[in-house]
Design a protein that fits this description.
single chain, 336 residues, alpha/beta, TIM Barrel, 14 helices
């Protein structure tokens, strides 16, 4: 399937149809730059950012707005349930001059739902409209909206909310093909994404279980969506973005990284995190990244168990490097 269609969101034209999802605790600047480097991410998003944290001036929350020019085009995703707070947060985010501001109407996490935010907004069209209108009015930057198809199987609302969003001048939609109660299990409903695409004239990006080039192609062919968003499929596997990008263009996808390259990228990620985050935070945050990078590798569980117990970065780097050398050489991994 050759890619002959340009994905345009508002006045933004993307060089491709593959988008990196916003993921809390994952899609920080380092991860986004890695995703960009492999050439597959036509658009990236920040981590999910609390609107309340922004208007309170929380230093860590504000730091999440920062990005480098090499990360463009980039969207900032906001999470909240109060129209006025969301509007003020959008104004703060706009000062950083992102390419898009995205509204989170899809997060199914319990702590988010309890605050009436994320996927909870699928239950209240009136509040949803007020939030969308307030944010669109507050910023000159194009606004997009990411949502689930409904709260549960009995309340599928994606098409109705999509029409509300378009009526409120939202410039693009991202549809996760599961309900909120499904969270990340069960089948992704491509038919509902297709029905949304048929209802609106603005771009629709499909999301949910896009873990291979073949699944991305199936989503686009089945639903007619304008692009695909990849989230969990990129964990420890950022090169999937370039594989999907090439596949959609009818080109030969690059081969998956071998063990040497995978561990090499993990080490590079770790060293950049140490430099930019500081030792304490980097050691904590990179544990999950290392787990994703080593998933499915020979004796990876043994390696992960050892690394989880380490507190000094030099020890972690030494273990990863030794694992890389021993495994490539055909030896048995172990330090007994």
């Amino acid at each position: 399937m050759a890619e002959d269609k340009i994905l345009k969101i508002g006045g933004l034209s993307l060089r491709g149809r593959v988008v990196l999802a916003p993921m809390s605790g994952v899609t920080n600047s380092i991860f986004r730059r890695i995703a960009k480097r492999y050439g597959g991410a036509a658009l990236v998003f920040t981590e999910v950012i609390s609107a309340e944290g922004l208007i309170r001036g929380n230093p860590y929350t504000l730091s999440m707005l920062r990005f480098r020019e090499e990360e463009r085009p980039i969207g900032i995703q906001l999470l909240g349930s109060d129209p006025q707070i969301m509007a003020r947060a959008a104004q703060i985010a706009s000062r950083f001059k992102p390419d898009l501001i995205d509204l989170n109407f899809g997060c199914p996490a319990r702590k988010v739902i309890r605050k009436g935010a994320g996927a909870f907004l699928l239950k209240d069209f009136n509040l949803s409209r007020r939030i969308i209108e307030a944010v669109v009015e507050a910023t000159p930057i194009p606004v997009t909206l990411k949502m689930r198809v409904g709260w549960n199987r009995e309340t599928i609302v994606a098409s109705q909310l999509a029409e509300i969003a378009e009526d409120c001048q939202v410039r693009g939609l991202i549809i996760h093909g599961r309900t909120a109660t499904q969270r990340f299990s069960g089948e992704v409903n491509l038919e509902i994404i297709e029905s949304v695409k048929e209802k609106v004239s603005i771009p629709v990006i499909g999301n949910g279980d896009v873990s291979s080039p073949e699944k991305a192609r199936k989503m686009i062919l089945t639903t007619g969506c304008d692009g695909v968003m990849i989230g969990r499929g990129a964990l420890g596997n950022p090169w999937i973005l370039s594989q999907v990008h090439a596949h959609l263009r009818g080109e030969e996808p690059p081969q998956p990284m071998g063990l040497k390259e995978r561990i090499g990228l993990c080490l590079e990620h770790y060293r950049i995190a140490l430099e930019e985050m500081g030792e304490f935070r980097a050691v904590r945050e990179m544990r999950k990244q290392i787990a994703w990078y080593t998933k499915g590798l020979p004796q990876g569980s043994i390696l992960r168990k050892e690394i989880y117990e380490m507190k000094r970065p030099a020890e972690v780097i030494k273990r990863l490097s030794l694992y890389q050398r021993l495994t490539i050489a055909g030896g048995i991994y172990g330090f007994g």
